[in-house]
């Protein structure tokens, strides 16, 4: 079982592959982690060192992934934070080659664009996501803001969320996991992760905790990818991922930590 995961990497904290890779490995899945950035930490801190990796370097690493036969071996391919329009383009080229080479490969596109009404990626990335990566995806995991931005529709209730997901699904091939959702009928004090497949919604609610550590979406996507790589059905994979992320957040809150407390991954809390 192998997942190819193309995302950011940080020295301190848990975002991008620095959140997802360990979680996938803890689930018993091998990971080929390809970085798009190498940063000291996420941008919440008062200083930030490192840089977005050069497009030529990212392209070279992806060529190495192909040369080692990892595309043939992989069960799931994940893309997250892309870093630059150039990186987005070469990653889209890689996704197209990988999907052609391995017809069984499941592609999970986490369209990292922004949150809380704010876009924080470079100009040009959104176009690559819209026109190349999302149409190729089997599954995408936007937060509610990203889903609204990509679909061009405001989301207030289950009906409008289904309509927004249908825009992303295109011809119906792409399942959508909408994260961080608060709809008109969401219970007070709860937040929902909602899986939309072929117009059917599966809703997973957890208590809304008074903490907002970075990287929860990256962790969720990584866990979903790990469960899919192990052959689990989509709905079960999402439910188990939600359970684990919530357990991590509870432990993080109990520890009073600004960063997610991942280690050890709280697998005991998962339901069979």
**Rg, nearest Å:** 17 Å
List the uncertain runs.
268-272
* Whole-number count of domains: 1
Counting helices, strands and paired strands, the structural category is alpha/beta
CATH topology: UDP-N-acetylmuramoyl-L-alanine:D-glutamate ligase
Order of strands, main sheet, comes to 2-1-5-6-9-10-11-12
The helicity comes to: 40-55%
CATH class: Alpha Beta
Sheet-strand content, in percent, reads 15-25%
Name the CATH architecture: 3-Layer(aba) Sandwich
Number of separate strands: 12
What does this structure look like?
- The protein has 272 residues and is α/β, with parallel strands linked by helices.
- The chain has one domain (2-269): Ribokinase (UDP-N-acetylmuramoyl-L-alanine:D-glutamate ligase, 3-Layer(aba) Sandwich), CATH 3.40.1190.20.
- It is built from 9 helices and 12 strands.
- The strands form 3 sheets. Strands 2-1-5-6-9-10-11-12 form an 8-stranded mixed sheet, with helices on both faces.
- Strand 10 and strand 11 (190-197) form a beta hairpin.
- Helix 2 (55-67) runs parallel beside helix 4, helix 6 (144-151) crosses helix 7 (158-169) and helix 8 (216-229) runs antiparallel to helix 9.
- The longest helix has 22 residues, at 234-255.
- The radius of gyration is 17 Å and the shape is globular.
- The two termini are 20 Å apart.
- The model is unreliable at 268-272 (pLDDT under 50).
């Amino acid at each position: 079982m192998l997942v190819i995961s193309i995302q950011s990497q940080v020295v301190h904290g848990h975002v991008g592959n620095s959140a997802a890779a360990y979680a996938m490995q803890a689930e018993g899945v091998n990971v080929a982690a390809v970085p798009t950035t190498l940063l000291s930490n996420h941008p919440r801190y008062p200083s930030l060192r490192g840089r977005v990796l050069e497009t030529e370097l990212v392209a070279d690493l992806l060529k190495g992934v192909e040369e080692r036969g990892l595309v043939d071996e992989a069960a799931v391919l994940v893309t997250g934070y892309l870093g630059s329009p150039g990186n987005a383009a070469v990653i889209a080229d890689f996704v197209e080659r990988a999907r052609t080479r391995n017809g069984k490969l499941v592609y999970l596109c986490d369209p990292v664009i922004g949150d809380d009404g704010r876009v924080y990626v470079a100009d040009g990335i959104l176009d690559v996501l819209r026109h190349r990566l999302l149409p190729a995806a089997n599954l995408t995991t936007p937060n509610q803001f990203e889903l609204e931005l990509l679909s061009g529709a405001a989301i207030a209730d289950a009906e409008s969320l289904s309509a927004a997901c249908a825009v992303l699904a295109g011809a119906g091939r792409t399942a959508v996991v909408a994260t961080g959702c608060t709809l008109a009928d969401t219970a007070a004090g709860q937040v929902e992760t909602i899986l939309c497949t072929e117009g059917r919604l599966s809703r997973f609610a957890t208590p809304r905790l008074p903490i907002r550590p970075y990287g929860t979406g990256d962790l969720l996507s990584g866990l979903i990818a790990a469960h899919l790589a192990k052959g689990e059905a989509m709905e079960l994979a999402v439910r188990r991922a939600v359970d684990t992320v919530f357990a991590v957040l509870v432990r993080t809150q109990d520890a009073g930590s600004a960063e997610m407390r991942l280690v050890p991954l709280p697998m005991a809390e998962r339901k069979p």
